Amino acid sequence: MGPIDILIFDRLAAAQGVVLPDVGSLSVERDAAKFVSRSKVVPPQNRVVFSRESKEGFDSVIDLIMAADDVKRPEATKKYKEWLESARQEEGHIEIAGVGVLKNGFFYTSAILHDTLNPAGDAPVALKKRRSPWRTLLIVLLSLVAAAGIALLVLRALDVRLCDVLHCKTHSGLNAGENGENIVAITVPLENEDRSAEDLIQQGLEQYAAQSASAKAAPVFYVSAGVFRNEDNADRLIANDRLMVGSDAYVKIPYKGMTMVTVFSSPSINAAYNRYLELLYLDTDLWVYEKK
Predict the structure, then answer these.
(1) Where are the strands (E) in 85-219, listed by range?
(2) 217-249 confidence digits (pLDDT tens)
C-alpha cells in the first residue's frame, strides 16, 4: 500500500466517504442484521459502494494529500493524477492497493478492509433461547404456592400469632381450657372481626405471596460499554461517546462494587443482542450483561 492507498483505506475504515476526482465517490453503507432462523442472526454488515457522482460532504483525495503532505493544491493534484494513472489497469479497472478494485461501476472490497469494517464477521450468531412467558408464569405460580405452604408450616411450628403476620394491634394471653391445656387468645381488629380464621390466614398468605412476587423482579439485559473502578473513567467514556449514540444514551449502574457504563437496556434478550450487534463494529469490547 502506498501513501495515497493508506489515506483512502483509513478514510473508509472510519466509515467515512471519499471523493476520487474524475472518477466518483466511495462510501460505506450498513446493512441491518438479518435473522436466518429463529435462533440465528447475521450481524450488521458494512460494505463499500461506488457512485459516479462527487457527493457533497465527502473529502477529496486531493484535500487529504494536501493535509497529509502539507503541500499546495497544484502539487497534491499532480501526485493524485500520477497515482491514478498507476492504479488504472489495462482493462480500465482501478485497483487501490489494500482497499479494493473498481470494476464496471462496482467496487469489490479487499479482504482486509472488509474484516476491518466488520469485526464481528459475517457468520450467523446463535442467540440464547428465550423462555416461554407461559412457562415462566407457571414456574412463578408454583414457587409462590410452595413458598406459601412453607410459610404456613413455619408459622404453625413456631406458634406465631396470626396478627403478627397481619400487622394488627392485638393482645394475647394464656387461658386455661376445659381440660387444663393452655390456649393462646387472639383479639382480631374491628375491621376483621366478621371474617373467619380461614379468611384471615388466606389474607396473610396473599400478602406474603405479593411480597415474594415483587421481590422477584424480571431480568434486564444491558449492552455494556465498560466497567470501571474509578467513576471518573466512566464519565470520560461517556463524554468521548465513541459509539456515537449521544451522551444521554449512556446509563451508569453498579456492578460488583464498580461502575458499569451501559448503552442500551431491555427485558428482551433478542432486543439487547440486536443492539449489541449493531454497535459491535464501533467497539469490539461490548458485551451483553444480564441483571437478575
Answers:
(1) 94-96, 100-103, 106-109, 125-126, 174-176, 182-184
(2) 578 999 999 888 888 888 988 998 888 888 899
Rounded Cα gap, residues 255 and 252, in angstroms: 9
Contacts 24+ apart (CB under 8 A), 57-60: 57/17, 58/16, 58/17, 58/18, 58/19, 58/25, 58/27, 59/11, 59/16, 59/17, 59/18, 59/19, 60/18, 60/19, 60/21
Say whether 251 sits in a helix, a strand or coil: strand
Q: Which of 225, 43, 32 is nearest to 126 (CA)?
A: 43
Delimit the CATH 3.30.70.1070 region(s) of the chain.
220-291
Residues 6 or more apart from 45 whose CB is under 8 A from it? 30, 31, 118, 122
Span of 47-51, 146-150, 160-164, 251-255 with lowest mean pLDDT: 160-164
- Residue pair 289/262 in contact (Cβ under 8 Å)? The answer is yes
Helix (H) or strand (E) holding 2: none
Query: What pTM was computed for the model?
Result: 0.45
* Contact indicator for 118, 179 with CB cutoff of 8 Å: no
Radius of gyration of the chain (CA): 34
Set of cell numbers at residue 232: 471518573
What is the rounded distance in angstroms from the CA atom of residue 80 to the CA atom of residue 64? 10
φ, ψ of residue 59 to 5 degrees: the values are -75, 145
Give percent of the chain with pLDDT exceeding 70: 74
For 272, the grid coordinates are 439487547
Domain 220-291, architecture per CATH: 2-Layer Sandwich (3.30)
Look at the block and give the residue holding cell 400478602: 207
Q: Between the CA of residue 123 and those of 41, 71, 285, what are the distances in Å?
A: 9, 44, 18
